[in-house]
């Protein structure tokens, strides 16, 4: 056995076979081959490998290549006769699938085609999504995923992810162990109560975690096998779904109060026990009251992130920082008015105030006074403070009562108008004309999803502001011609932030999410907006560069993780070791984004990272700063 190991080492050079058990990226225990064992019950013989072949290989989406299997592979893996004789390239497969998808007239049909591909040929699915991200992002993510969730019961064919219902109460840890993958790094979980702007969709909200994690892989490079979508089914109050014969969830009203809290607590404890403390848990589309409570309760004990609160805030702050290069001034010199005071609105407002405080060295309470919020009862003011929910109280400023948005615009005279209301057509012509009357270039962000719920359209914003608005939305809109000039609306899409943010958090070994890490993500995104983008009126970079953008964000976040001390007990030496044992494969042909590390670090595949991050990483890995690339995993294609 010893001689065999020496042969494998190829001359006795250090390799993963020489290493003892240690903490892993996921927080479990690492075996001698670098695999993550979260619990002792999951012991396996490290040199035993199960290799699929024949018919089973063609049915395994992780390894199936369809007609791209070569003649040699067909012979080796017993595929003769199981495939037509033609051998095609992945590029030809990609062209064929895109041709077929474009034949569908309805976005939902395209969504279903993409999901079928993901279940049959995972590599081709991600290659397709990466190479056609601007065209396919609205299909696998917002806005089409919203319609897919509404009709999830009707289109459901194969389960994706874990469904944990109240029936599993007391057995959630056992349910987690039913999932075949052990090295989980990112979990996206929802209870389906507030899916986009569509309300309570119960168990059918699973489309959101599945879609989000597809983007973690395609845009951020997290291995598909390290991602776990979860739906917590605690019932639904949607009468239409309860009476729908095709509904796939529990047919009961939502549980609330202590029963709900106990169920969530069991889930959070089970995740930590099974996967370790370094697994990132992303809360998705929880109702406002639960979303804030979950962040407050578990933010100090788990690695948790709420994309609706923190992700949205980070991407909007990045857009505002970029917009200031067009309109001038600093964050503190502008006045902000929000329509909507829920998760997104208050989350964005708080991050703006935090960055304002950091820039001006002013107490955050003073910075909050530059930010005003309007909810369903009008402007949030101090006379309403006693009746307000706790997350609205910091925004209750001294002012007389104002009952509607138009009056609030005229009273506050904001320079920035942000919509997070979830209600369409609330930025009326009167509202847009009012803010344009006292601003040369008003910043207007209509962020509600899906498209039907946007506060106004791009055409309305540019027309009513006479082409002067700096405009962005939450859903995609086509360019608008006004007075002979083409205006391209930006999209404040959370997909700019969460893949790179999550990747930076996971790969740095963070055990908690801090606000400084969100600010780091915003800074990195804003830096990617070029003068060419500004000339078109854009305040976000094009999605065609999203993998490079994600790499910048991940590096910035990882560096900030170390500065704020969110690494727990992980030392630089263990980070170097984790980097050395990383076993991620390259996506073929993307030399602009990835390259091989040679020299001291074991050869592994990396995103190419800007030089300003090399010195930081050299401390973490022990590699000279002139030769380092940031050790981020990339998609195995």
From TrEMBL:
GO terms for molecular function: malate dehydrogenase (decarboxylating) (NADP+) activity; metal ion binding; NAD binding. SUPFAM superfamilies: Aminoacid dehydrogenase-like, N-terminal domain (SSF53223), NAD(P)-binding Rossmann-fold domains (SSF51735). Residues 118-299 form the Malic enzyme N-terminal domain. Pathway: Photosynthesis; C4 acid pathway. PROSITE patterns: MALIC_ENZYMES. One of its GO terms (biological process) is malate metabolic process. It catalyses: oxaloacetate + H(+) = pyruvate + CO2. Residues 309-562 form the Malic enzyme NAD-binding domain. Its cofactor is Mg(2+); Mn(2+). InterPro entries: Aminoacid_DH-like_N_sf (IPR046346), Malic_enzyme_CS (IPR015884), Malic_N_dom (IPR012301), Malic_N_dom_sf (IPR037062), Malic_NAD-bd (IPR012302), Malic_OxRdtase (IPR001891), NAD(P)-bd_dom_sf (IPR036291). GO terms for cellular component: chloroplast. Keywords: Metal-binding, NADP, Oxidoreductase. CDD domains: NAD_bind_1_malic_enz (cd05312). The active site is at 141 (proton donor), 212 (proton acceptor). A divalent metal cation binds at residues 284-285, 308. Pfam families: malic (PF00390), Malic_M (PF03949). (S)-malate binds at residues 194, 449, 493. SMART domains: malic (SM01274), Malic_M (SM00919). Divalent metal cations. Prefers magnesium or manganese. Homotetramer. NCBIfam families: PRK13529.1 (NF010052). Belongs to the malic enzymes family. This is Malic enzyme.
């Amino acid at each position: 056995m010893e001689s065999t190991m020496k042969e494998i080492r190829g001359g006795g050079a250090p390799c993963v076979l020489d290493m003892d058990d240690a903490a892993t990226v996921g927080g479990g225990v690492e075996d001698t081959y670098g695999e993550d064992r979260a619990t002792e019950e999951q012991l396996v013989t490290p040199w035993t490998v199960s290799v699929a072949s024949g018919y089973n290989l063609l049915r395994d989406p992780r390894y199936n290549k369809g007609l791209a299997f070569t003649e040699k592979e067909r012979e080796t893996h017993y595929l003769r006769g199981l495939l037509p004789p033609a051998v095609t390239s992945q590029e030809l497969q990609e062209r064929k699938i895109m041709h077929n998808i474009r034949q569908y007239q309805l976005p939902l049909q395209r969504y279903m085609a993409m999901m079928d591909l993901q279940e049959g040929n995972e590599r081709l699915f991600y290659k397709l999504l990466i190479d056609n991200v601007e065209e396919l992002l609205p299909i696998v993510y917002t806005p089409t995923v919203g319609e897919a969730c509404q009709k999830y019961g009707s289109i459901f064919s194969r389960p994706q992810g874990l469904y944990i219902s109240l029936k599993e109460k007391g057995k959630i840890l056992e349910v987690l162990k039913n999932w075949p993958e052990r090295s989980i790094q990112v979990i996206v979980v929802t209870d389906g109560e507030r899916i986009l702007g569509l309300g309570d969709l119960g168990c059918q909200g699973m489309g959101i975690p599945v879609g989000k994690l597809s983007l973690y892989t395609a845009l951020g490079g997290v291995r598909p096998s390290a991602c776990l979508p979860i739906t917590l089914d605690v019932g639904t109050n949607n009468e239409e779904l309860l009476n729908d014969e095709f509904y796939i969830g529990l047919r009961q009203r939502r549980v609330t109060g202590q029963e709900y809290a106990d169920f969530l607590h069991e889930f959070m404890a089970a995740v930590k026990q099974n996967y370790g403390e370094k697994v990132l848990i992303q809360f998705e589309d929880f109702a406002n009251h639960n979303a804030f409570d979950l962040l407050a309760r578990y933010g100090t004990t788990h690695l948790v992130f709420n994309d609706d609160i923190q992700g949205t805030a980070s991407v909007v702050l990045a857009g505002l920082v970029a917009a200031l290069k067009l309109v001038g001034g600093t964050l503190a010199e502008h006045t902000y008015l929000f329509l909507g005071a829920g998760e997104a609105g208050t989350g964005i407002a708080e991050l703006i105030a935090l960055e304002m405080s950091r820039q001006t060295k002013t107490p955050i309470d003073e910075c909050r006074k530059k930010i005003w919020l309007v909810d369903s009862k009008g402007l949030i003011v101090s006379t309403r403070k006693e009746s307000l929910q706790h997350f609205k109280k910091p925004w209750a400023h001294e002012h007389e009562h104002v009952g509607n948005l138009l009056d609030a615009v005229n009273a506050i005279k904001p320079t920035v108008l942000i919509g997070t209301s979830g209600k369409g057509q609330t930025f009326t012509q009167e509202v847009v004309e009012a803010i344009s009357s006292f601003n040369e270039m008003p910043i207007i962000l209509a962020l509600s999803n899906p498209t039907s719920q946007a506060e106004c359209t791009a055409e309305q914003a540019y027309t009513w502001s006479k082409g002067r608005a700096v405009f962005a939305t939450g859903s995609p809109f086509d360019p608008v011609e006004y007075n002979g000039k083409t205006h391209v609306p930006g999209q404040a899409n959370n997909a700019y932030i969460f893949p790179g943010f999550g990747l930076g958090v996971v790969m740095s070994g963070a055990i908690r999410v801090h606000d400084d890490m969100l600010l780091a993500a915003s800074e990195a995104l804003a830096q990617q907006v070029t003068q060419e983008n500004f000339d078109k009126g854009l305040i976000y970079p094009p999605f065609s560069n999203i993998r490079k953008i994600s790499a910048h964000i991940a590096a910035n976040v990882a560096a900030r993780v170390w500065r704020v001390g969110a690494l727990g007990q992980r030392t630089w030496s263990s980070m170097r070791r984790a980097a050395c044992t990383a076993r991620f494969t390259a996506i073929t042909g993307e030399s602009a984004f990835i390259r091989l590390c040679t020299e001291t670090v074991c050869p592994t595949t990396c995103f190419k990272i800007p030089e300003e991050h090399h010195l930081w990483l050299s401390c973490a890995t022990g590699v000279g700063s002139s030769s380092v690339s940031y050790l981020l995993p990339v998609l195995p294609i």
